[in-house]
Amino acid sequence: MPDLTRAFADFATGSITTTPAARLVTSLSALDWIAVGRAGVEEPVSRILREMVLDEGGTGRAHLFGGGAAPLRGAALVNGTVSHALDYDDTHFAHIGHPSVAVFPAVLAMAEARDAAIVELLEAALVGMELSVRVGLWLGRGHYQAGFHQTATAGAFGAAAAAGRLAGLTPERMALALGLTATRAAGLKAQFGTMGKPYNAGLAAAAGIEAVELVRRGFVANPLAMEGEYGFGATHHGADEMSALEGLGESWLFEQVSHKFHACCHGLHAALEAARSLDIAAPEVATLTVRTHPRWLSVCNQPAPTTGLGAKFSYGTVLAMRALGHDTARLDSYSDAICADPRLIQLRDRVEVIGDESLSETQAHLSLLRRDGQRQEVSHDLMAPLTLAEREERVRAKAAKLIGGGAADEIWALLRTGGGAADLASRLTAG
């Protein structure tokens, strides 16, 4: 077995030593995942996927966001899609992927079917999400730049690793599952801006479940399909960056996952976080200059959006919203009416956005000129670590805004004090 596959299979099936930070961040990501999934159940793509899977029938072994139950693969497909429908879930910038929406749907379905404990579920999820980040690093940025969606591709391997760990696969069978996943992992950036983007997350979760369930039943696949001349890396613009294995099992890259605290494109978040340090109340703003990495100019710099959806991709609009006191963490803050507000339009037009190659993709610099002539300068990097206490406070506050404080506290208590996976799965719906 080649070094990469052996390392990943051994990691996914072996004993691990976690850190308090890794365990806490995993629990926070679980809360965040459930909250954004519950908040996204009425999105059109969510209704379509649920209707299709429920119409197919089969034995309902795992809960669905929005109610009902489905076979494991169908549940993973629905829950992955629904939880990415709002694009409000966590992001790991090491490879630009969304780990939770690919891994948690698979691991929760498998845990529920096997009557696993929440602590086992969380450990498997951490392993799967860590492996997805490592696979993304092994593939390299060229894979993403060529048009592949890392959430769907790297995420599928993470989903298989997490589900396979709960299913008790041996290292040899885990290698088979990863190899089989290599022929199923798929997802294109061409789907961005359509229902196809959240569907990519569902595909990753479903592929992981499918590969594990087949291998568990004796299915034989090529365990080397990630590597080699015709393997996944070689055929998908992979860089074969073996440094991705450094520290595997000893350090947890997943600890650096970035949770979204604003209900808009992640490219806007560094600017919004920087604005938290500014006196940016509307009456005092003369001009506001934003410097950001040039890649975001074509992604989230709509100059004059007229819809709530467009507002989520506009530096000027979200910063004007903040200056007017609108909570950018709330879904209902983004509306057509807000975009038409004359006060917002006036402020939005005072925001200048400049591409700056000296900044990383996670950084932004703001320069505020006040009407009294004072200038304030501030920068923010999304990779700047929050203390664990700050991260917990903000994730729990976000969840409370999405699903209510009582529901968020109840889920958090389960995640921190234990119970069964079925108890957690029952919280995918309100009531």
TrEMBL record:
This is MmgE/PrpD family protein. Gene3D superfamilies: 2-methylcitrate dehydratase PrpD. Residues 262-404 form the MmgE/PrpD C-terminal domain. Residues 7-241 form the MmgE/PrpD N-terminal domain. Belongs to the PrpD family. It comes from the Bacteria.
